[in-house]
Amino acid sequence: xxxxxxxxxxxxxxxxxxxxxxxxxxxxxxxxxxxxxxxxxxxxxxxxxxxxxxxxxxxxxxxxxxxxxxxxxxxxxxxxxxxxxxxxxxxxxxxxxxxxxxxxxxxxxxxxxxxxxxxxxxxxxxxxxxxxxxxxxxxxxxxxxxxxxxxxxxxxxxxxxxxxxxxxxxxxxxxxxxxxxxxxxxxxxxxxxxxxxxxxxxxxxxxxxxxxxxxxxxxxxxxxxxxxxxxxxxxxxxxxxxxxxxxxxxxxxxxxxxxxxxxxxxxxxxxxxxxxxxxxxxxxxxxxxxxxxxxxxxx
Length: 299
Fold this sequence. Notes:
299 residues; 13 helices
């Protein structure tokens, strides 16, 4: 257990300027995504009259007052202010929890119609991790390490549980190619009803014409989800997260279900941005130190 905690958090590992700059950028990206989603959901929720299928906070609190008083845009405005204030370290112990609470309220107000957007959950998980780090840790290094370690752990666990639930519900037959055929055709009908026209893309036609290939697609996706726990370990983290990016890109192409924020955040966490930032910094510093003597001799 101690080894796993070290892999996830590693509070004792020295921190570089690349680590700090990356985290500030990642935190800013989460706050920007939170703000954008709050306004997007707020504008949509103005069309909703009542709660049809309560979820989350709405199961314990009647959120219909949000629709009755047209509060969704005010909620989005307060979330935006709180996200900016927290990122600028203006009372973050107040700003971030308030942003988290109102962001969830906006979420349940928007998705009270019985259908939820799974891609947005990643943004909410990230906001929760950053908020918990601010609340329970004083040292900025510990805050950064906890927030990222928390995300790696729960994201990996979520994929393992997602794969397990598929097997519990359907067994190994879940990866049968005719299931993918059914989903492609259902999605085709949905888009046809929404847009009035829809043509199958090349990848969809290939999948519909080859049962073995469709089965291979689903089996590869299932195995990739089961391997989600590998992001708990530094050596395998990048590779499994890039595989998951490929999985979601495949879903986007074959089922035409888009979640760009989710994929973008996966890439932020998957790639070694801190090391690249340090390499660029070192290259710039080395170049400046080699040109400095030449400037001195010139004068």
